[in-house]
Specification:
Blueprint (H helix, E strand, L loop, with lengths): L6 H21 L3 H12 L4 H6 L10 H37 L18 H15 L3 E2 L5 E3 H4 L11 H4 L4 E2 L3 E3 L4 H10 L4 E10 L11 E12 L3 H16 L4 E8 L2 E11 L2 E11 L1 H6 L7 E9 H9 L12 H4 L3
Parallel strand pairs: 1-5
Antiparallel strand pairs: 2-4, 3-4, 5-6, 6-10, 7-8, 8-9, 9-10
Helix pairs in contact: 1-4, 2-4, 5-11
Amino acid sequence: MVIGLNLEDITAQLCALEAEAAAAIEAAADGAALEQLRIDLLGKKGRLSGVLAAMGRLPGEQRPLVGQRANVLKEQLQGLLQERLQNLRQQAMASRIASETLDVTLPPSYVPSGHRHPLVSTTDAIVDIFCGLGYRLVSGPDIETDHYNFSALNIPPNHPARDMQDTFYLPGDRLLRTHTSPVQIRHLEANPPPVRVIAPGRVYRRDAVDATHSPVFHQVEVLAIDEGLDFSHLRGTVTHFLKAFFGDLPVRFRASYFPFTEPSAEVDVQWRGRWLEVMGCGMVDPAVLEGLGLDPERWSGFAAGLGVERFCMVRHGIDDIRRLFTSDLRFLEQF
């Protein structure tokens, strides 16, 4: 570029530089191009400096006019460069947002695998052992009648055993079952012996909540009815089950009382140096068989029941039953 030698030429060159620079800045594609334009236009060896170098040839009274015009142009070009850089950054961000948008309504590409609750896995382990012995899995309703929950099990009204199984009563002679024994009665009404069934399920009692009690818990009850069954069959079955579940531990039977079995026993295992009660059992009371229309001279049987929470707590070393119902993932992920 030929630098003018008078005021008019220099002023015309500054105007031309303004127009060219504005067009070049607007056409810049990225930050690197803008930086190169800044150097070419405003650097020490840039075009604006070249124009200003000619001021020394002008008369003294004209130099301030050129200097003032050059300063205005410099500020304009700096403003255009900054504005264009901001626009390019905004465009780049908008493009990135558009390309990286996450549609939260889409199904997740990864779903972490879950696992069974410790109560469920404990129940399954118990059921598997008895099914391996030839028992059939049966179930019944959580809401029962007084007949199936108490009377059919030799627990008539005003019987002291009802105080031990106080439950939640509903209108119409209905209640929340206190054990899964009603399932056995319902099954025997529909299926003549011989029968071998296992009935797991949720049960309810009006117990205060503490480290070992809950108003809602789970039971598994076992029933076998056949000709010639006696206490030795009960003892062998229970002993086999406990050793299959806990390992080869000492097992003992203690005389006890249940309204629907006679004789009855509590069963303990020696766990970590002490005897621990784990279940109750007994031979089915003849009165229960007669109530079902079965001849106790021909048929005999045994029943056993256990609390799933107790077995789960013993197996896993859990110190508080409430931990099983809090849904705390920090606790549940350990199993």
